[in-house]
Write a structure and sequence with these properties.
mainly beta, Jelly Rolls, 2 domains, seven-stranded antiparallel sheet, six-stranded antiparallel sheet, globular
Length: 322
């Protein structure tokens, strides 16, 4: 059996595979960049695969390394080594392809957003599941970075499809707080921080432009209540997600909650209030209300284009532990 030895990567260069270029080496061209004009890039003719090389030789060297990487690690296929907290359901749902950060702008002020999805977006909709990944987001101002659990498509046309649990962190400079909300109809998202059991003791580390692992398990228990557990891995804050070959799996519990459907989240003067908004979410809201499923959906606002990255994404159906 032929042993493939990993070629040396050049010191210069910037990986741009999160821009979704064509990952077909025969289509790649090495050429000088327009800005800055003293740098080189590898492009598919429309989108850069990598750029900012100091020389054409470095670009050629990187192309050789990337062709090796594609042979060993097929593109777009999840290589997640994140440990499962609970038992995987045999024959259950599992997403294996993910989008990488997708950039978009929203609202009258063109707020920047980076999002992660499965490919296709409706590839995962399990009621009982583990969704996870290592992400790094550089926020330009205070905001939240979070997964939207059991979510359907968001938007005015399917406001109830946006029902979900938001689990993550709120980041304000060097200050990090837990962030937990229940989106009861898009875009109404009352906080449920006072409903969760906080499991992390001490101060959360600064997470702006740092790599953090997310691992969220959700299921409906034997009593029909929805359980969500959120764990995080802070062990590789300074390692870019693209350089994580094996997940360290140093998980720490952050919070846990059980939604029995009896939380009063009503807003007295909200004319959009629906009578069943306080009910716990027992299946993906895209299935319940239409509009498509978004079972794997991570969202980070206030993150400019190119300032978000992710790896080790995972979405696996589990056996409900109770």
């Amino acid at each position: 059996m032929e042993i493939l030895t990993e070629p040396v990567k050049p010191a210069s260069g910037r990986d741009q595979r999160d821009k979704d270029p064509r990952m077909e080496p025969d289509a790649w061209v090495i050429m000088r960049m327009n800005n800055p004009s003293d740098k080189w890039k590898i492009t598919d003719g429309e989108t850069n695969i990598a750029d900012m090389f100091d020389s054409k030789e470095d670009a050629l060297q990187y192309k050789t390394w990337l062709e090796w990487d594609l042979t060993v690690h097929p593109p777009d296929v999840s290589r997640s080594s994140i440990a499962l907290k609970y038992t995987k359901k045999q024959g259950g749902q599992e997403a294996t392809k993910f989008s990488g950060p997708k950039y978009s702008e929203h609202g009258d002020d063109n707020k920047p957003r980076n999002s992660l999805y499965s490919k296709p977006k409706d590839a995962f909709s399990a009621t009982n599941g583990q969704i996870a990944g290592y992400v790094r987001m550089k926020l330009r101002r205070k905001d939240q970075i979070l997964y939207k659990v059991m979510s359907g498509g968001h938007g005015d046309d399917h406001s109830m499809g946006g029902r979900c649990y938001g689990c993550g962190f709120e980041i304000d400079g060097d200050e990090t707080k837990i962030h937990a909300v229940k989106e009861i109809n898009h875009p109404t998202t009352p906080r449920i921080t006072n409903k969760v059991e906080k499991l992390f003791t001490g101060n959360l580390p600064p997470l702006n432009n740092k790599t953090v692992g997310y691992r969220i398990n959700h299921w409906v228990n034997s009593e029909g209540h929805t359980v969500v557990e959120f764990d995080a891995d802070f062990s590789i804050l300074d390692i870019p997600p693209k350089d994580i070959t094996v997940a360290p799996n140093k998980w720490q519990p952050i919070f846990r909650f059980i939604d029995k459907g009896n939380w009063d989240l009503s807003r007295a003067n909200n004319s959009n209030q629906k009578k069943n908004e306080n009910a716990n979410i027992k299946e993906n809201s895209g299935i319940t209300y239409g509009g498509g499923e978004l079972g794997y959906y991570f969202r980070a606002d206030e993150v400019k284009e190119g300032d978000g990255s992710a790896s080790q994404e995972q979405a696996v159906e589990i056996v409900a532990p109770n």
